[in-house]
Input
Amino acid sequence: MTAKIFIDGEAGTTGLQIRERLAARADIQLLSVPEARRKDPSARAELLNAADIAILCLPDDAAKESVALVTNSTTRIIDASSAYRVAKDWTYGFAELDKGQAAVIAGAKRVSNPGCWPQGVIAGLRPLISAGLLPASYPVTVNGISGYSGGGKAMIADYETKGESATEFMPYGLTFAHKHLPEMQLYSQLTSTPLFMPAVGNFLKGMLTAVPLQLSTQQNILTGKELHAALSDHYAAIKDGFVSVAPLAAPERTPALDPESLNGTNHLRLHVFADDNKAQVLLIAIYDNLGKGASGAAIQNLNLMLGIDPATSLGRL
Output
């Protein structure tokens, strides 16, 4: 059976990538507003209600408007905005969150696609907190860098116009109110808001998140090997997942930490670096902010909701 899919906001950065990956699939019929009706609000409502699954690639307020336009009980929704990421009646679309999360997504009517920044942080922290290896009260700090595509079309145009003269490293979120913080805290299972310093780099896509852990502040001081084993066991138990854990190593530097190294894939790779003598650990995640951080995750969730191989249109490493 061919599934009818409507990408609301298909001209945006995420929407374009999703449409490109789905265009050649025989199991999907992509619905689009006809050119002659592009300015007709009723055309959008018609397609939202005609779709088996609607993927919303819109700003938060516009996404809420689209959800309100769905008047039937059959259209299922994947929302790529941050409008519903901490809403109790929406399913969080990070399939590797827990062992049963993919099954929950598969049966859900409303799925909120994860934000790019939180995924790497959640991937590293949640298994450790869930297992009781790190307290939920731990004062987490997060640093990271993302490609400029994370800022959408306007930022892409700005960086591409400036070229080599564009800023190589630009921290932001300095008001401590980044919109991804509630999601990062909730799904990591933290009791307090992380201290988060994101930055934009002069490259199109790819990202790195880093969470340093000062374990000497804890009563039960674990080794890097123990934390690495816990993360490895968590993701090994998740069938058809896209999160992997790199072998435990202690290099001075490694090209594996290039933020662009997983570009074009839906994979997220975790690294654990540790100095047990100092009781210090660093959790680093590498992934494509437009892949696992956006369009790739949306397609993974779509595949789960359609009951097919999650790697369809995505591939595996």
The radius of gyration is 20 Å. The chain has nine helices and 13 strands. The domain at 116-289 is CATH 3.30.360.10 (Dihydrodipicolinate Reductase; domain 2). The chain has two domains: 3-114+294-306, 116-289.
